[in-house]
Specification:
Strand content: 25-35%
CATH class of the largest domain: Alpha Beta
Distance between the termini: 103 Å
Radius of gyration: 32 Å
Helix content: 10-25%
Shape: elongated
CATH superfamily of the largest domain: Glycosidases
Number of domains: 4
CATH architecture of the largest domain: Alpha-Beta Barrel
Strand order of the largest sheet: 17-18-21-25-26-27-28-29
CATH topology of the largest domain: TIM Barrel
Structural class: alpha+beta
Amino acid sequence: MNKKLYNLMDWAEIEAVTYSEEDHPKKLLGARNAGRNGTLIQAFFPEAKSVSVKADRVKEPYPMELMDESGYFAVLIRKKIPFHYVYEIETKDGRNLTLEDPYAYPQVITDRNSKKFRNGILRYAWETLGAHITSVEGKDGVHFAVWAPDAMRVSVVGDFNDWDGRVHEMEKLSDESGIFEIFIPGVSEGALYKYEIKAGNGTVTLKADPYGFAMETKEDAASVVTDLSSFRWTDEDWMAERDKKQGSENPMVIYELQLSSFGKKEGFKDVAPELAKYLKSSGYTHVELLPVMEYRNEDAAGYHTLSFYAPAARYGTPADLMYFINYMHSQEIGVILDWSPAHFDDSLSGLARFDGSCIYESSDPRRSFHPDPGTLTFDLSRPEVRNFLMSNALFWVRIYHADGLKADNTASMLYLDYGREDYLPNIYGGKENTDAVELLQNITNEVHKEKNGAIMIAEDNSAWPGMTGDTADGGLGFDYKWNESWRDDFLTYLSYDPFFRTDHYGELCFSIVYAYAEKFMLPMTHDAFSNDKGSFVHRMPGNHEEKYANLKASLGFMFTYPGKKILTAGLDLGDEEEWYPGKKINWDLLNNTENKEVHELLKDLSELYKSRNALHELSMEESGFEWINCISANENILVFMRKGKKESDTLIVVVNFENIPRKNYKIGVPKAGKYKEIFNTDAEKYGGFDFRNSHVLKSEKDECDGRENSIRIKVPPLSVTVFEIV
């Protein structure tokens, strides 16, 4: 063994490399100045029989000496760095390889970005961490970076290095940042990879990339190196007008869908044309997709997220999802993505105990494990974790042009005791998660800074104040909140036989008391009709015909009541079967007269809602609604006005949830004049009795409902009737 070479060896550090326990491999591996001796080059190739260094402008390669039988090689070269070189390798199984030295390249992540990430303010963290196809010093390859602060060692393993964790040990930037990185020349798009992480206790695990852009479809899937910049968007017109289409004064009718349920074909590209055609013909303005971020648990409908930056491979590639959204935009359909920042899947190949310790989740089970969904909750006290989620929201909005994100189950984020018998209070002894408040405020602020009209929607079944309030005033900054209290009270009221609804009349009209406390959406979504709750039709009282009459009247009430509309797939067909994950939409229902009538009603209600300013223009303003009659509990009748900015746009809505028709029913009207029926859910085309007001009605000066003028109308059973001022 060359004595000079031997004396230059740091045997303790070499042992750390050969035992794969080194977090700073650049201290040894690669080329470095050896003073008078020239340049020392060290390499670790466990499967090599021999290795030589081929330097530029040097005819013959320099044979490297085997310094350790594990595969540690070194050579002294009488040539001053910097210079370019490659390794020429003969493997033990007889292969000949020429490889670039990954340790010859400089640090890629800047100290500035590393510090920003550490402080939780790196807005587009996916541009720094993860796997990125790039060029460093003129060489094409992939830069890998991962946050694993407590790891002893992290390696990139993949189909480009025989999944050998000894080969590409990553460099830890600093103990403060906890980020490991490596640039590997020659790796290209489509390569499969994982991170092999050696924990402090010596345990070795394989992990998917938390910032990976794509994954395989199989179990225990690897991440896939993916270029997100190649797709060519053509939705400039939609994006330019999006803020107007989704503003509080504009109508939104949202179709909630688990993508796999729509048809025989499940892929993003295959579903897009047929789905867009259905949405347009039915009057929907948006589709809300149940989670399409990579997941493993089909039973949870995608809510147990495994990889937050990768679309579910079962539906296609990232480019396929971009195509889907781009196509929807070309058809004037917005796309909202269901998003789960509250929790994540506990799979050991994902975020759970990522580097051998709890870095994404709390180490205290009173904070980390959520017993209801059986998932892990994020440790939002860590800036890096908050950064992960904030950046993730921006990722879907910016990279995929998502028109909005619906944050799932925000109550479980905001309340430390949510679903827990034993919980860890905050530092003040309370049950509020102050870190979650800060995070959600930051997310909504950052999304709105994008200034492209994307919206944030909160699914919240608590009474947390100011969900849609301005963050400057302590609110959380969401654009809209699901009004689950309205839905639950309404469904409870409807579940009673009309004879008994009188005693529950307050549940029907009480919601208007808080209807303007937030900017609400009315959600008739899958969660209300699953887990043995029964379908909408199933939950209605009465015989078969009465069940469907209740459904039609309910749709009429929903579309005339303040708030944007969300309906789960199948509800617009009157499906009698309960929803469950993976349930296919039964399109054969449209062959049944009663189901087709429900669908026709939905289409016409959508058109009424979108075309009449009074039904959407002031939907978020108290001035847009006024009771005429909310005291007729014995008759189960409500009468109210919906108003637009112009007085002439005013509509009168009469709701009857009793199965008794009323022929000469008197209602008060806002002023003397003529009134014309413009919509009736009891119309013959919807399977009703056609008990309608076919003539224009002239008011009389006859006091009713505290108003000087009134009209007498026909009120069909189980119906909604709408009048305009002529």
